[in-house]
Task: structure prediction
Amino acid sequence: MAKENLQKNEERLESIESTLSSAELFIEKNRKTITGVIVAVVIVVLAIFGYRKWYQEPREERAQAAIFRAEALFEKDDFATALNGNGNDVVGFLEVINEFGGTKTANLAKYYAGICYLNTGDFNSAIKYLGEFKGKDQLVKALAVGAMGDAYLELGNVAEAAKCYENAAKASSNSFTSPMMLQKAAFTYEMAGDYAKAVAAYKAIKAEYPNSTEARDIDKFITAAETKLAK
Result:
């Protein structure tokens, strides 16, 4: 039994030595290629680090400083100046987008720009910039998609508006934006004469967000839409 174990151990050692020898031979034959790959990987990693540290981060800081005054004007509903700047001490959202493209701040400026255009009556531009906004914050994303719905509705595109409101309700499941967007979707469906979808949206509010403001008179809306549906 001991001899068998010893023999097996010797065989394992021979197998390991053979594997190591093969690996060493492979490394020896491909030393230049392996070294080149390692060097290339190191260069790429250093390049990415350098790009972020010495290029992207300073641009992000400058963009944040630039957008500050426009955000303050946006909060005061001075949408035109916030959007375009004043040629003096206010850098508008459009300039931030053009000057600092690729930064998080420039992306946020697209959301602001879309809302500014919505409030100043340029609905096509509102759709453009809101559509380009890439929001990671689900609440802001929902508001952006909902605002696109408002712009489409102003343009008379009821079907696309309803679609946006539905997507906005799904983008962030919460008791603030979701019932609000579902209600907008329901109203829009009623405008289009699609009472079945309107009833479904109203019932979703009642079932999923019973404590929301929109749910207070929801039975009245459901009954009215169902009555129209039955005609």
